[in-house]
Design brief:
six-stranded antiparallel sheet, mainly beta, 58% strand
Length: 111
């Protein structure tokens, strides 16, 4: 899948930014368990040479269905930027380094 976006200076609190996000993933179901893997890559287009982060994020998830409406899950993610730029696991949160790792576990119940 592909997504383009552009922010325009004056309409946002950031300078003009153009980028294309590419992503893909796979699911593999084994009885009550589902394994998911995904890769996301952002290609920033209008940044001076050596200043673009072009981050790539890898995600793995294990989900186990306790019932039709209740799941247990474990997810892990790793993101790395290029050129020593900052990046984060969320596009809305500031990055604090050129790599970041995340881990979450929980239970989901659908009403």
């Amino acid at each position: 899948m592909v997504r383009d976006f552009k922010t325009v200076a004056g309409k946002a609190l950031t300078p003009d930014v153009e980028a294309t996000t590419y992503w893909g993933g796979v699911n593999y179901k084994i009885n009550a368990a589902t394994l998911t893997g995904a890769i996301y890559h952002v290609n920033v287009k209008n940044v001076a040479g050596g200043k673009d982060a072009d981050p790539t994020m890898y995600v793995a998830r294990y989900r186990y269905a306790l019932s039709k409406r209740t799941d247990l899950y474990v997810s892990a993610a790793y993101v790395k930027a290029k050129n020593g730029q900052l990046t984060g696991l969320s596009r809305d949160d500031a990055g604090f380094g050129e790599t970041q790792r995340g881990f979450v576990t929980g239970m989901q119940h659908r009403f």
